[in-house]
Design brief:
The chain has about 130 residues and is α/β, with parallel strands linked by helices. It is about 35% helix and about 20% strand. Helix 1 packs parallel to helix 3. About 25% of the residues are buried.
Length: about 130
């Protein structure tokens, strides 16, 4: 048995960063977030295969979405918190499904922590 712990956090998938708002130094959108999350899982699968991992602990450490935690996000986010939640859920589920179907991983334990909350909430799902 070989174990691995994968950390996932701060995707803020519905936030929008326009290049003209940051001196042209950056750009971010839900499409870019989706692409990055998909690459994350493909690269994670590659690493798990290289290390012959059979058991994965996947820790989602919060801030996958931003919601409206700041006033300006209600105006600048690319989607509502509900839409972002559904997208985040689909991206993570699809990514873990990809891991399960493209590696030798037999067990995935999911630990979810909601960011920017006091006290921190913990969700643990074992598949």
């Amino acid at each position: 048995t070989r174990y691995a712990v994968a950390l996932f956090s701060d995707a803020h998938i519905e936030e929008t960063v326009e290049p003209n708002g940051v001196l042209g130094l950056n750009k971010y959108s839900s499409d870019i977030a989706k692409e990055r999350v998909e690459h994350y899982f493909v690269n994670l699968a590659r690493c798990l295969n290289e290390d012959q991992v059979t058991d994965l602990i996947f820790a989602s450490l919060g801030d996958t979405i931003s919601g409206f935690i700041h006033e300006e996000l209600a105006q600048t986010n690319g989607m509502s918190p509900l839409e972002a939640t559904f997208l985040a859920q689909n991206l993570i589920y699809s990514g873990l499904d990809y891991i399960y179907n493209n590696t030798e991983v037999e067990t995935i334990k999911f630990i979810g922590i909601v960011g920017n909350q006091q006290p921190y909430s913990l969700i643990k799902i074992v598949c």
